[in-house]
Amino acid sequence: MSSLGNLDSSFADTATIVTGGAGGMGRAIALAFSAAGSSILVADVDDVGGRQTVDLVTGAGGKAIYQRTDVSRADEVAAMVAASVSNFGGLDYAINAAAIENEVDFLADLEDDNFDRIIAVNLRSVFLCMKHEIRAMLGAGKGGAIVHLAVSLVLPSRRQSIMRPLASASMQSAPGLSRHRCCSMPSRREAETHRRSQTGLACSADSADQMK
User: Fold this and answer.
1) Which 3 state secondary structure label does DSSP give 51?
2) Does residue 170 sit in helix, strand or coil?
3) pLDDT in tens, the chain (212 residues)
4) Could you tell me whether strands 93-96 and 145-148 are parallel, antiparallel, or unpaired per DSSP bridges?
């Protein structure tokens, strides 16, 4: 049983992506969702840990696959979401838990490349993941739910702010994107309307081509 406890059985026959699922909180979330009936796509750059999470899920009777994903890369995030759609028939829930938290340099000593990497993983990835996850949910016409985890650094202590200024700042920025997503994410009815409108446009285009 996951340390997160039991989730409601309404998660049965759903598909869930968990980024950062190779260990820690991501693994615990993957196990909890699986125990509630959801099929799990474990995404991470830690191949060994990711496959171990899959083994734990399947060993407990659940269904899971591993997709190596650098969440800062648009092509890999798109492939991650596509893998959920192709293997599980869609995407219902996404838990974006991947992050860099082990920043150890003082701000004055931080290398430019390290700055770029931390921002890419802790902030750019939030945009990329939600962008592709929302598209998949809209395409299915049934909506869904996305959770972004920013852990304790959202409200950093004075020591965290001094010792990990960039990780702290990037994770405090991420909830702003999440709040916008909460306001802009369509309801199930709106998602179905969007899907039908897109299908209608495609049919209209096909009809126009046939009339030429």
Assistant:
1) helix
2) helix
3) 444 555 666 799 999 999 999 999 999 999 999 999 999 999 999 999 999 999 999 999 999 999 999 999 999 999 999 999 999 999 999 999 998 877 666 777 878 898 899 889 988 999 999 999 999 998 888 888 999 886 544 444 444 444 456 666 666 666 666 555 544 555 555 555 555 555 444 433 343 334 33
4) parallel
Gap between the Cα atoms of 74 and 19, Å rounded:
14
Q: Would you list the domain boundaries of the chain?
A: 9-211
> In CATH, what is the architecture of 9-211?
3-Layer(aba) Sandwich (3.40)
pTM for the full model? Answer: 0.76
- Closest by CA to 118, choosing from 170, 174, 177, is 170
